[in-house]
Amino acid sequence: MTPPPTKRQADIGEMLLALGAIVFGILIIWQTTLIRLTPAYSKVGPRIIPYIVGAGLVIVGAWLAYEALTGRAATGSAESEDADPTLPTDWRCISLLALALLAYLLLIERAGFIIASATLFVTAAFAMGSRRLVRDIAIGVILATVLYLVFTRGLGLSLPAGVLEGIV
Fold first, then answer.
1. DSSP assignment string, 55-113
2. Of 63, 54, 52, which Cα lies nearest the Cα of 23?
3. By three-state DSSP, how is residue 6 classified?
4. DSSP category for residue 3
5. pLDDT tens, 95-123?
6. 149 contacts 168 by C-beta, under 8 angstroms
7. Over 60: is that where the pLDDT of 1 sits?
8. Residue 160 confidence (pLDDT)
9. Which of 85, 32, 81, 83 is CA-nearest to residue 56?
10. In whole angstroms, how large is the CA radius of gyration of the chain?
11. Burial of 114 from C-beta contacts in 10 A (0-12 / 13-18 / 19+)
C-alpha cells in the first residue's frame, strides 16, 4: 500500500511571486482608474485592456498563493519545459534581473529607449548565464532599434530618443 503524500511547507519563493503578482495587479487596476476618459469614448475605451491585465494578475497571484499554501508541488511532465522545479530559487539571477529593470526605469527617459532596452537585454542575458557580451550587445542594439523604429515610425507612437535624438 502506498503511503499518503506528505504535505510540504509553503515555499517562500512561490509565496513572494504570488504576492508580487497580486500587488502588481492591484497597482495596475488602481493606476487604470486614473486614466482620463473623454466623452468621445464608447463603453470600450483605453481602460479595458489594463483592467483585464490587472485582474488577470490578481487571479493568477491568488491561484499561485493557494497552491503554495496548500502544499501542491510543481511537477514537470514530458511536455513541459526543461526546468527542474525541485531546484532552489536562483536569487542571484532574480536580483540581477531586478537590477536590470531598475536600470531600465532610470535610463528610459535620460538615455532613451534604444540604449535602455539594449542595456536591459544585455543585463538579462548575463543574469541568465550568457557570457557572449559582444553578441548580446549586437542583438540588444538591433532589437531595440528595430522596435523603436516600428513603434515610432510605423505606429506613430512617441518613445524617448534620449541621447540619440536627431540620429534616429
1. HHHHHHHHHHHHHHHHTPPP---TTS-S--TTSPP-HHHHHHHHHHHHHHHHHHHHT-H
2. 54
3. coil
4. P
5. 999 999 999 999 999 999 999 999 999 99
6. yes
7. no
8. 93
9. 32
10. 21
11. buried
Q: Are 55 and 24 spatial neighbours (Cβ–Cβ below 8 Å)?
A: no
pLDDT of residue 59: 97
pLDDT tens column, 116-162: 999 999 999 999 999 999 999 999 999 999 999 999 998 888 899 99
- What cell numbers appear for 73 in the block? 508541488
Q: Tell me how far apart the alpha carbons of residues 118 and 45 are, in angstroms, rounded to a whole number.
A: 32
Name residue 158's amino acid.
S
Can you say whether the dihedral through the CA atoms of 41, 43, 44, 47 is positive or negative? positive
Q: Which residues contact 161 (CB under 8 A, 6 or more apart)?
A: 112, 113, 114, 148, 167, 168
Give the pLDDT of residue 8: 56
> How long, in residues, is the chain?
168
C-alpha–C-alpha distance, residues 42 and 36, integer Å: 13
The pLDDT tens digits of the residues spanning 66-91 come to 988 887 755 656 666 666 767 888 89
